[in-house]
Every structure is written in structure tokens, then in C-alpha cells.
Specification:
Phosphate/phosphite/phosphonate ABC transporter substrate-binding protein; 9 helices; Solute-binding_3/MltF_N; D-Maltodextrin-Binding Protein, domain 2
């Protein structure tokens, strides 16, 4: 998912605004009576009701139909703000990226409900063709452009690649966060390597008119964990199980709602599967590697 700036600060409450979708009374018996009505939904990387409605309005309507309950959007400033919203009971369901979920689980005991798979979602580290760098170990003492602090593919997944070959991110290489400027920084010689997701790398190369061989990949990671619908741990377990079951059974309808917006093209090949917390352990390992144990 798109990543906002990572906040290394205390959690702040951010006021949420809601907008509801009313569903026919005949559908209400589909879900357990102890499920909340309305069910409040947050998307961690989208700010404001207008953007929420534009990108996930069709999904919200589909979800309300599947669950037989009203669904309201809850707008959060960023994923940091989603934690206190979960803890205070103001949000019931959150769609979060892998790194965001790990923090939501640690800070608010969020329960992984449904994983939204993202095939071909993995980290890559690229170099200039004339750099002479052929392996990750050659990046010791070098400067590496990464996306934003806390980004799943552009920071944590890439860092784990380097850790796995024995490099210490706190001493063996220098990381600079360049956002969308990673390829530019590499071309200009500001950095020795550029780390990001394979999807964004392909996009940036295409926009710059560069061939794959001009910026070769020196290493690629394994597939990263899925985005995840995480639930408020204060909800009744029977409700959570029924919501999970209904969403999985109606995933074609729900995915159609997600893909109604071109902004969600990254989910074009996605599936919904039951989420497992252990699938996100590689992200936790990366947080520890960069010295952020306290956030876990």
C-alpha cells in the first residue's frame, strides 16, 4: 500500500469522520447479532472522506451488502492514528499494509482477519549498470536509497535482504530516504544502490524511458506478506469469525468493489485468504534489525 511518512513519535488521537451506507433490512440477519452496526472501516493510507469514497466507496457498499450491516468510513490521518482509534473502540476494521499491521497488532492488539494477497510484491535492490556491484555484500560502506521509513517493500523488506547476507543496517551501510526520487538519486550518483518494490521499480524505469539493463537488479527478496484487514480485538470472537467467513465466501463481489477504482490496480490479481499473524514475522525481524524493538 502507499506509505505515509513514518512517525517515530507517540501515538496521537485523530478525529474521524464517518459516512454511512444503509443496506436493506432483509440482509441484516446474515451476520451475528453481536456484531457492531454500523461497522466502522478505516484505510490506513488514505486521508479524508472524499478520497476514501472515491477509492473504496464501491467496496464499502459491497461489504455492507455482504455483511447485511451498515458500514461507515472512519478517516485517520495515518496508520499511527489508527491504533488509538482501535483502542478506543472507534474503529472496527482496518485495511493496512504489512508494516502497518505489525504496529497495529503491537500497539492495539489488532486481530488479522483477511489477507488481501499481492502477487509479485517483493523488494528489489538495483544499481547502475557501470557500478561494478554484483552482490549485496559489495554494498558494505555504501549509501542506499530507500523509499520512506516504515515502508514495507522500500525499507523493511529491503533491509531484511541486506541483513540476510550479514550486513548490519546500523553500521555497515548508510540509508537515505528518497521517496519517489530513488531512481533519480541513483542516476545522479547521490547513492550507490536503490531499494524499492519491484512494481514501483518497473513503473519508474518506464516513466524515465530506461531499460531493465540500465539499472540491473542485484538482489530480489521473497514475496512480502499480504495487505490485511485487521479487526478490533474488543469485538466478539463469534462476530469476527462470521465476518471472516462471509468475506471469504463473497470475495469475488468484494474484490470487484475494490477494483472499481483505478487507484486500486495493484489488487488486480489479488485473492482474499484467512490471515495469519505469523506471516508477518519477517517484518518484525526487519524492525528489530533497524533497532526499533520498542515499536513491537
Amino acid at each position: 500500500m502507499k506509505r505515509r511518512q513514518f512517525l517515530w513519535s507517540s501515538l496521537l488521537f485523530v478525529a474521524g469522520c464517518t459516512t454511512a451506507t444503509r443496506q436493506p433490512e432483509r440482509n441484516r440477519s446474515q451476520t451475528a447479532a453481536n456484531c457492531p452496526d454500523p461497522l466502522r472501516l478505516a484505510i490506513t493510507d488514505i486521508k479524508g472522506l472524499e478520497q476514501l469514497q472515491a477509492e473504496f466507496g464501491a467496496f464499502k457498499s459491497a461489504l455492507a451488502d455482504v455483511l447485511g450491516r451498515n458500514v461507515e468510513f472512519f478517516s485517520v490521518e495515518n496508520y499511527v492514528a489508527a491504533s488509538p482509534a482501535l483502542l478506543s473502540g472507534r474503529v472496527d476494521l482496518v485495511l493496512a499494509g504489512p508494516s502497518e499491521y505489525v504496529l497495529l497488532h503491537a500497539r492495539a492488539q489488532a486481530i488479522p482477519l483477511i489477507a488481501l494477497t499481492r502477487p509479485d510484491y517483493y523488494s528489489v535492490i538495483s544499481v547502475r549498470a557501470d557500478s561494478g556491484i554484483k552482490s549485496l555484500k559489495q554494498l558494505k560502506g555504501k549509501t542506499i536509497a530507500m523509499r520512506t521509513a516504515g515502508s514495507t517493500a522500500g525499507h523493511l523488506g529491503s533491509t531484511k535482504l541486506l541483513v540476510d547476507v550479514g550486513l548490519n543496517p546500523q553500521s555497515d551501510f548508510r540509508t537515505v530516504m528518497t521517496g519517489d526520487r530513488g531512481l533519480e538519486a541513483l542516476q545522479n550518483g547521490e547513492v550507490d544502490a536503490w531499494a524499492d518494490s519491484n512494481i514501483r521499480r518497473t513503473q519508474f524505469l518506464r516513466e524515465a524511458g530506461l531499460s531493465e539493463s540500465a539499472v540491473p537488479i542485484v538482489a530480489r527478496g521473497t514475496d512480502l506478506p499480504s495487505d490485511v484487514f485487521a479487526a478490533n480485538s474488543q469485538l466478539d470472537p463469534a462476530c469476527l469469525e462470521e465476518v471472516r467467513s462471509l468475506m471469504l465466501a463473497a470475495q469475488d463481489q468484494l474484490l470487484k468493489g475494490i477494483l472499481a477504482s483505478a487507484a486500486n490496480e495493484k489488487y488486480a490479481s489479488s485473492e482474499m485468504v484467512a490471515a495469519k499473524d505469523s506471516d508477518y514475522d519477517p517484518i518484525r525481524e526487519a524492525y528489530r534489525a533497524i533497532g526499533q524493538d520498542d515499536y513491537l
